[in-house]
Write a structure and sequence with these properties.
mainly beta; single chain; 1 helix; Thrombin, subunit H; eight-stranded antiparallel sheet
Length: 138
Amino acid sequence: MSEAVEGKAFRLYVMDSGSTEAALIIGRTNSDNLSMSKDTKGNSHKDSGGWVENTHGQKSWQMSSEVFFEESDLGFLKLEDTYLNDKYIRCEFVNSQDRIKRIGKGIVTQLNISASNEDKSGNSISIVGSGELVKSTY
């Protein structure tokens, strides 16, 4: 049986959509998250016996991250640039333990900088997918 993947094995990388440049890691993260969901469509009919029947609908995905804030972090600067200039961003959610990555094009929907008293400042980042999320090995 394979071992559970340690959380530190997952990292979020970004680059301009369609670019051939190297992906930039989002630095000093506390947590990186990938959420995938699917809608359903009601498919009930007179012969369903009072039970709801469903069929598969559209899929969607979102990546998010909680990060210690550093103004010079190249990954954050890339996210900020794509947000401010209404550009798509290419995202890679990488599992370095099993050498698997999930890649997609998305839109930066949230960049929060939190600066609380007597604590390190942080960012929360959200990217909503636009199109397919592809799983591959490297």
